[in-house]
Design brief:
Radius of gyration: 43 Å
Strand order of the largest sheet: 5-2-1-7-6
Structural class: alpha/beta
Helix content: 40-55%
Shape: elongated
Low-confidence stretches: 1-10, 450-473
């Protein structure tokens, strides 16, 4: 077999110098390529490190990544200008947004050349998608596509020789051959840096959100602890009065003729009402936040309700030596609202005004404006700073009151008030200046949008109020199923004064025994739900399964007072519902209503 050798023969005239020079030039070009790529990567790494640094205030953006790429490549390619055109998806064009720096104060015009046109390469220049696709397909390459991890086009990296070239800066032939490789690998470095930048920013954002969540959690815990401390104090204060004065009455032996014993009872009653108000505020806020607050729409008499509200705060104002003023516009007569909630809103504002006013007056002005009624509660008190006005409606927040030695209330009154106003389709405004008093304005529509009057419930209420009370001559009996002794005594005594015979049992077993001894045709059952040996609602269902007991009216009297509790009770088969603490007058009306039905059936 014939052998061939790549080595020149002894007598060959081939010059050995050119191959050696070519190899050296190639090595230099490859070193230039790697050095250029390393310098670009180092610049990109510096950009990414500045994002991660907690010390540096500056934060790298995508724009700085792009500019670093064109600047580094511009220096590496010497006589070539490098640019990046970003893709504009809506208009389907590329817009030149980054161009490498030029050493000349008057840089020449730079062009990209397609087969049939020249495209000027300068900032803000627009290149059509068709021209860019044509440039991508030409040889030698002038355009390299930039895409993200999903393959979507970000933009295009472009190069173009300037019209003025310097021999000192011109690329060698070997470098020119590697320039396409430099641009292609640079696009990958650019895309990788952009992706890394996005990951870093995403992690930082998550970290900030986590930190913000932790701060909110800490703030919530702080507010919760503050709320619990305030609530504990507020609950213990009236309880102390209730328990203490009750003990005094027991120790001294109650004598209705003694004036100080009557005062003890007034204090006990007042403390009990205060305790109930406190609990109601907490329940109201939780109901509102759970969107479970029931509103009873009525056409109410505005002047009457305003006078009633002022009557409730009159004593407190007199004790502090404050004038109490009411200004009613004669054009304001009626309003569709929940009367109980309107009273609650006005009382909250009036009590606050009295609490923060030492001298002068507190007033309520009622004015019509277009289709709205303005209830303005004003005072001449200590006023509220701008800083505190911003926090005024935050739950549990309380303004420091220099007029008393401690905080009063739980910081829920204004929060509940504003939410109640909003439920009525209105809003609450505040004007105040330190040492110059405050004005809180409740603005309510005369007829709120989405008004939902419960006519059936109102009709039942009116019927109950009109029902005459059963006299002591009636054979009607009340079976009271209640395990709490004080509540049972209260109900027994009150209904006894109305002439009813009350049979009291403490549990389910005693109830079944009593039922066998009573006439079901003239019997009303007052049922508590939480019993030591059963659930009241389950007992009602069991009663309804007995044919002879199916028509007995059952009224549930329970501490279940959240939205939906009434419906739950009615669904179990009860006839009526009343929540604790009991409104005795309402209890009497309900018993009278069902007693009247029994009498009519008989």
């Amino acid at each position: 077999m014939q052998q061939y050798s790549s080595l020149p023969e002894q007598n060959s005239s081939v010059d050995k110098t050119p191959p050696l020079l070519t190899t050296m030039q190639q090595l230099r070009a490859e070193l230039w390529l790697e050095r250029s790529l390393n310098q670009l990567q180092s610049r990109l790494n510096d950009c990414l490190l500045s994002v991660c640094s907690p010390v540096l205030q500056h934060r790298t953006t995508e724009a700085e990544i792009f500019q670093a790429v064109v600047d580094e490549l511009g220096m590496a390619l010497h006589s070539m200008t490098v640019a990046i055109a970003l893709f504009q998806p809506r208009s389907k064009i590329g817009q030149v947004s980054y161009v490498s720096c030029s050493d000349s104060p008057y840089p020449p015009l730079i062009y990209l050349e397609t087969k049939d046109k020249k495209l000027e390469l300068k900032l803000q220049a627009v290149i059509t998608l068709q021209d860019l696709q044509q440039l991508e397909s030409q040889q030698p390459n002038q355009v390299w596509r930039l895409t993200d991890d999903a393959g979507a086009v970000i933009g295009w990296l472009m190069i173009s020789k300037t019209s003025l070239q310097s021999d000192e800066k011109a690329l060698t032939a070997s470098q020119s051959q590697l320039s396409s490789q430099l641009l292609a690998r640079s696009t990958k470095q650019c895309v990788a840096a952009l992706a890394q930048l996005q990951r870093i920013k995403s992690l930082q954002q998550q970290s900030q959100q986590l930190g913000s969540s932790n701060e909110k959690l800490e703030r919530t815990n702080e507010l919760k602890n503050q709320f619990l401390a305030n609530t504990s104090h507020e609950i213990r204060t009236p309880l102390s009065s209730i328990i203490g004065f009750s003990q005094l009455l027991l120790a001294q032996g109650y004598d209705p003729t003694r004036e100080h014993h009557q005062e003890y009872l007034r204090i006990i009653q007042s403390s009990g009402k205060h305790l109930l108000t406190l609990i109601n505020d907490i329940l109201d806020l939780s109901k509102i936040e759970a969107n479970q607050l029931e509103v009873e729409w009525e056409n109410i008499n505005v002047p009457e309700i305003c006078r009633n509200v002022l009557a409730l705060v009159k004593e407190k104002a007199a004790n502090k030596g404050l004038q109490l003023r009411l200004k009613l516009d004669p054009n304001v007569t009626t309003l569709v609202a929940d009367p109980l909630r309107l009273k609650q809103m006005l009382l909250n504002l009036l009590f606050n005004a009295l609490k923060f006013t030492k001298t002068g007056a507190v007033g309520l002005d009622v004015l019509p404006k277009d289709e709205f009624v303005h209830f303005i509660v004003w005072d001449t008190g200590i006023g509220i700073s701008q800083e505190n006005q911003l926090r005024l409606f935050q739950p549990y927040f309380q303004i420091a009151n220099t007029l008393v030695n401690r905080h009063e209330g739980t910081g829920l009154g204004l929060t509940v008030t504003r939410k109640l106003v909003e439920i009525h389709g209105g809003w609450l405004e505040v004007e105040s200046e330190v040492d110059h008093g405050s004005r809180f304005t409740i603005i309510l529509p005369v007829k709120p949008v989405g008004e939902a009057e419960k006519e059936e419930g109102e009709a039942e209420k009116e019927e109950g109020e009109k029902c005459p009370l059963i006299t002591s001559n009636s054979p009607l009996e009340i079976l009271l199923v209640e395990n709490d002794i004080p509540n049972a005594e209260l109900i027994r005594i009150y209904l006894g004064t109305l002439g009813y015979q009350v049979i009291w049992v403490k549990n389910a077993a005693e109830m079944w025994t009593a039922l066998t001894q009573l006439n079901p045709e003239m019997l009303v059952i007052l049922m508590d739900i939480y019993l030591p040996d059963g659930n009241g609602l389950e007992l009602v269902q069991q009663i309804r399964q007995e044919a002879k007991y199916q028509l007995i009216p059952v009224i549930v009297q329970t501490a279940m007072a959240m939205k939906g509790d009434r419906e739950t009770c009615l669904a179990a088969g009860v006839n009526d519902y009343i929540s604790k603490p009991l409104d005795l007058a309402l209890l009497g009306s309900l018993v009278a209503k069902h007693g009247k039905v029994l009498s009519a059936e008989c």
